[in-house]
Amino acid sequence: MIGKIFGNKSSETANSVLNMLKKEEPVFRFNQDGWETIGVQTRAKDTRTPAQIDATLDALAERIPVLREFREQIKSMKPIDRALISDTAEISNKLELLPTNIRMVENRAKDGKSILGVLLPKLIKASKENPAILKFTREILNSTDTQTSKYFLSKIAGFNPQAILERDEAIQNIVYREASQMRFDSNEKYSQYVENRIAELEKRYPIEYSQKTITDDTKSGELIDASTDMIIPIGKRTLNGMYPVTFKRQHNFLDAMGIFLNPEIRPENVRFLRKICDVLDSIKTQKDIPIDLFPFLKTNIPKSQAELNLAKLPQAVKDAEKAGKDIEATNFIMSNVNFVKPYTKPDVTRELKYVPAE
C-alpha cells in the first residue's frame, strides 16, 4: 500500500525506518543456572551489535536493581566495555549448583553495598583510566568457568570470597542448630524462621571490603596487558580437574597470575613465556616439565636468542627423559645460549692481505 501511494523508493525508506525502530532482543552469553564445565574453557566470540548489548543490559537491569543505578553512566562507555559490563552483570546474577556459589547481588558489606554494587563504578572508572584491567577481566570471563570469574570479580571489587564463605557457613551452623531445638507448626514457619534469622545475622556480621584494588592501579597497565596472555596457560595448570569444594584453585590461579605484576619483571618476557607454555603443552612426556618463572621474567636475554633456544627445547626434553633426568624449561632457555649461538657468515673482505703469486 505504501509503495502504491508513495512509490517503490518511499517503500524502501519506510521499511528501513521500521527496521531501525524494531526493538532488539537481549542476547545472553552464559547459561543462566545449573551445571557447567569446571576450569579453563573458550567461550564463543561475542558477536553482539551495540543495540543487542544495550538490549541485554536493559533486560538485566530489570532483574538487578543496582545495575539501574549506573545505567546512564554505562551508556557513555564504548560498546566493547558495555559488553563487559553486560557479561559481568549476567555472571553476577547466575546461580551455580555449587556449595561455594558466590552471591554477588545480595547486600554483604557494612555500608549495604553488594559486590556488584561496589564493582560497577570501578569498572566504569577503569574504562577511562585503566583499560588494561578491562581487557584482562574480559579474558578471564571468556576463558574460565563462572565460579572462577565471580571469584576474580569479587577480588577486584575488594571482597574476599573465602571470608564470605566462612562467615556464611558459621551463620548457617548457628541458625540450623537453633532451629533444630525449636518446635514449628509447619515447614513454612520453619523455613521462614531460618530465612529471617540468617538475614538478621548477616546484618550483624557484615563483610568488609578494600577500597582500593588493582582496578585503581594505573601504573601497571603494561604488565597487566602482558599478563593477559598467561591466563589460559596458568589456568590449565591451576584450575582444571575435579571440583575441590573450596576456593583453593581460584586462589592458586590468582596467586600465580600476581607474579606477573611485580615491577621488577619485563613485560616482553611475560609475553614470551606464553610461547614457552604453548611449546611445553605440545610436547608429549610422562611427567610435567617444571618452569622457574621469576628468574626468567627478570632476565634480559635477547629475544632472538630465546627463540633459538626455545626451538631446541622439545628435543632437549626428549633427550633428558631418555636419560632419566629432569629439565627445567626456563633455565634451559636462559643458560643454554652459547652452543646455539646463531652462525655468522665471516666477512672475507675484513683484514684481507695481498699475497703475491709464486
Describe this structure in words.
With 358 residues, the chain is mainly α. 59% of the residues lie in helices and 1% in strands. The chain has helices spanning 2-6, 8-21, 50-63, 65-69, 71-75, 79-92, 115-129, 131-143, 146-157, 161-180, 187-204, 221-227, 231-238, 248-258, 267-282, 293-298, 303-322, 329-335; strands at 33-34, 95-96. The chain has a two-stranded parallel ribbon with strand order 1-2. The radius of gyration is 28 Å and the shape is globular. Mean pLDDT is 86; it is low at 1-6, 337-346 and 348-358.
Distance between the termini: 106 Å
CA gyration radius, whole angstroms: 28 Å
Largest sheet: 2 strands, parallel
- Unreliable stretches, pLDDT < 50, 5 or more residues? 1-6, 337-346, 348-358
- SS element count, helices: 18
What string, H for helix and E for strand, traces the elements in order? HHEHHHHEHHHHHHHHHHHH
Strand order of the largest sheet: 1-2
> Proportion of β residues?
under 5%
- Helix and strand composition category: mainly alpha
Q: What gross morphology would you assign?
A: globular
